[in-house]
Structure formats: C-alpha cells, structure tokens
Amino acid sequence: MEIRFSGSGGQGLLLSARILAAALTEAGLTVAQSNAYEPVSRGGLSRSDLVIGEGEADYPLARRLDVLLILDEAAATVSTGLLTPASLVLCDAERVTTPPRGPFRTLCLPFTETARTLGNPRVTNIVALGALTAQASICPPEQLLAAIVAQTPARFERLNREAFAAGLAMGETEPA
Amino acid sequence: MTAPSLAAAPPALTGRRNLEGNEACALGAIRAGCRFFAGYPITPSSEVAETMARELPKVGGTFIQMEDEIASMGAVIGASMGGVTAMTATSGPGFSLKQENLGYACGAEIPCVIVNVMRGGPSTGMPTRPAQGDILQARWGTHGDHAVIVLAPASVGEAYSETIRAVELSETLRVPVVVLLDEVIGHLTETVDLGAVPETPGIARPFATGPREGFLPYAETADLVPPMPRPGDGYRSHCTGLTHGPDGFPTQNPAVAAAALTRTTDKLVLHRARIESWREQATEDADLLIVAIGISARAARQAVKDLRAEGLKVGLFRPVTLWPFPETPLREAVAAAGTRKVLVPEMNQGQLVLEVERVLAGRAEVAGLSRIDGETLTPDEIAGAAREALK
Lengths: 176, 391
Hints:
Strand content of chain A: 25-35%
Structural class of chain B: alpha/beta
CATH class of the largest domain in chain B: Alpha Beta
Strand order of the largest sheet of chain A: 2-3-1-4-5-6
Helix content of chain A: 25-40%
Largest sheet of chain B: 8 strands, mixed
Order of helices and strands of chain A: EHEEEEEHHHH
Structural class of chain A: alpha/beta
Oligomer: heterodimer
Distance between the termini of chain A: 17 Å
Pfam family, one (chain B): POR_N
Organism (chain B): Rhodovulum kholense
Number of domains of chain B: 2
Domain Pyruvate flavodoxin/ferredoxin oxidoreductase pyrimidine binding (chain B): 28-254
Mean pLDDT of chain B: 95
CATH architecture of chain A: 3-Layer(aba) Sandwich
CATH architecture of the largest domain in chain B: 3-Layer(aba) Sandwich
Keywords (chain B): Oxidoreductase
Mean pLDDT of chain A: 95
CATH superfamily of the largest domain in chain B: Thiamin diphosphate (ThDP)-binding fold, Pyr/PP domains
Shape of chain B: globular
Radius of gyration of chain B: 21 Å
Helix content of chain B: 25-40%
Protein name (chain B): 2-oxoglutarate ferredoxin oxidoreductase alpha subunit
CATH class of chain A: Alpha Beta
Number of helices of chain B: 13
Number of strands of chain A: 6
C-alpha cells in the first residue's frame, strides 16, 4: 500500500507520515518513508510518502498511490500522475481550491476549519490523520493514537487527542 | 590510552525500528567503535552529524563542528593519528573540498571513514535532490595513484551494516573508506531489524607492539599493513604526505618510492576477498543483466521482478563494494548465464557504465541508462529500457 501526505512546508506532513509509520511498524508491518521538500525554511511543496508491506520494499518510493492527502493548493496537481481508479484522494476543503478530479474518489473535508475550531490550526495534520485512518482502514485507531501521543510533545496531548477524534468522526461520516 | 575496540562499544541496537539512512550510518559507526566525528553540516548528509552530536557524548566520544569541510577532514585525520576511530560526513561540494586531505590519509595510510551522501551537481547543484554523480570522484577524486575503498549501501539496513564494515576495513587495513550513499538512501526511513545484522568481530587497528629501537613505521609486513605507532607508546615515527620509505621519511629513491607506493595499492589486492561484496538477483539464466547501485539498484530490483513476471530473463548484479569493483564476480555471472546484454542505470551521464564496459571488455553488449534531472530512475523506466534492449 502506498500513501502520500502532501501540501506546503510547515504543515506537519513529514511528522504525520512518521506517526503513521510508527503505528504500522508496531503492528508488524514494514514501512519505507521518503520525503521531498524545497530548500526553504517553510512553505514550498512538501510531501512524505509511505510504502507499506510485509517485508523490505523492492522499490521504496511511491509508484501508484492508494491514498493521497493534499493539505494545500501547492500540492494540488503534482501527484495526479500517480493516481489510479482505485485511489482515494483526501483534500483540505479550504486550502485546496482545485482538487484533482478523475476516475478516482476525491473527498474534500474541513481539516483546517476543524483544527481552527479546536483552537489551533497547527493540528490540521492530526485531524487529517484521523479522517485517513477512518477512510483507509490501514491501522486500528487506538494504535495510531498511541503513536501520536508518543511522537508529539506532552503539552499538546489533549489537543491532539481532540483533533484525532474529530478527524476520525469526520472520516466515519463519509461513505467509505 | 586504550585501543578503540568493540569492548568499549555500547550494546548493539537490536530489534525492529524505523531508522533513516543517515542516522543508520552514524549508529553503525558508533557500534563499530567510532569515537570521533568532525564535520560541517551539508544537505543531504547533515543528519549524520546531528546523530553523532547527540549520540557520541553518551559513549565518551567527541563531536566537533569544524569551521569548514577542509578542517573537518583534517581533524578526522588528526584524531585517527591520535589512535581514535574517526569519521566525517559530507555531500558533493564538501567531498570536493576534502579531497586534498583525503589524499594525505591515503598516502600516510591513516584509517578514516568518509560518508558522502550524493546530491545533484556540479558545484552546489541541487542540494535536496538525489544524484549518483560522485561514483568516479569517490575513486579518483584525490590526485595520484592511491588506494581507497568505496562501499555503496542500497538500503537503510545496509547503511548500518556497511558503515560497520567501513570502520572495520579502514581500521584493519589502514585505508580511507568512503561510504557512498545517494540522497534517497540517506534520507529514506525504513523498518530495519538490527537483530538481523550480523555481529562484527572485534575491530582492532594493528598498533605497533615490538621493540622501540629501530622501529620502522612503514615496514613491509606479510599482510602489507604496517602496525601503526600509537602516540604515547614511545615509538619514534615520522608521518608525511611526501612519498616515503619504510622509515617514514621522504624519499626520491626510485626503487624505494616504487615499492612503497606499490605496497599501498597491493594491500587491497591481497585482501580483496575480504573487501569485495556484491549481491545477485535472478542472474543464473539472465539474458540481460542490470548493474546498479543505491536507489537505482532498488528500482532495478523491482524492474527485475516485473520483467520476470513477463517471462523475460533479466537479473541484477549489485556491487556493494563499489571500489575496488567486484570485477571477477561480474565476469563470472555473465559467463555462467551466457548473458548477452548488460544495462547500467545510474543517476549521472554514465560513470559506472565505463567500469562495466572495461570489466566485460566485449563479453556482452553494454548500454547505459542515465537520468540527471534530480529525479530517481523508476522501475518502469528501467524495465522499459530492458525490454527495448531485448527486442
């Protein structure tokens, strides 16, 4: 299975992928994570890919995405070539103005808006992780939550828990 | 002062974990006994320095961020001459700057490990984008005939185990060893089972132990590796970048100079069996053989599976020791399979392909596949080129 987290530098894309990778490794799977970003301190196109399997991947980079998450317009079109009719595309409803459309399934969900309502737009990535967990059924939610708590600062634990729960609920409401 | 040895190393990391290639290099080096790192941060190798800065103090080691790349290499050589296992890490522009001091280490036979994480070049090039343009520089970057070993890991697990091997070869053979990663492998995080990495034997540099009187720091020993005097042990010795005889002092005596220079290169020939390492996948009946390193080899590994599924007889020969190139194993693989064609995909304009052409010398038709736009060669591109070649 191949999952891409994409958007603009500073949105916590690499961290989100690292959290999911940790949860999947804990579940016994083998993960390859690769990142790409521009030589700027924030902003610019940023992405992190997970290639998930039972043993070491022959080729550790993404070829055909099962799930594509887009959190910013900067990443709206760059990954379209890696989509197949079986792909699921999750877009931020506010920051992605031209979501990819095609034979695949595209869902535009209010990640940023939900994070802002919870009090901090910086947990947008955790809201999105929740929705992704519900939609892609790749890992039990409890395992992912444990990885979030383990990989993020303790002072944000409550906020992260709320963000993850909100994302999970959002993803479960949408038809899978 | 005591010899750096595995006895002083922390317990081996074991079990399954997610590690980044650069991090794995640093942890492998520490596991192997490295206790000194000097470097200057440069993308895409900075995580090696970052990990060393965090981990070395925990095992009583020393981390120094030097004022530049040149000084970093100088500090590593100095530390090693002081008896401590030492390493640095860099990328293209820094690797270029290190060449003069690297040459000194080759000439004076100072053990040291240099991690070079390749990025797009020339000059500052594309700092965050991958390339494999330093294949020949790693072999011939410093001037003059010289011995150097270059190891090319193709996974995070190998970044760990090959850096351990780099320390072992460097310390026991008194030769600089380059660990050559590309940006993809350096920045790739993979789930690795370090419990599966074989335990290394105790790594011990051959320090001088005999009589102080009449000591020759570059004596010609049976294994061609002269025992190194450790500061404080009372051996009088001289060390120089000038061509030197067994006594360590400069010479222009043709016979002495030729013997001394030949010994340093013969050393790698004598110990070749221990230095050489390669992996083969589906080579036994390959009509077409792919030769690749690093991320290009990972793409080829997938391409071989895809092509085999189509019924095409394609295999992969992957040098893990890049230099000295495993030439006899490649010739044997081609001869055993009756291979007709060889494809060399690499992220440069054709460097590895030159060596493959030289080694095979007409035994098979050799073609290159290049990519230099900052993107990796994909399994589909390699498979496409292989299909075309087999038409």
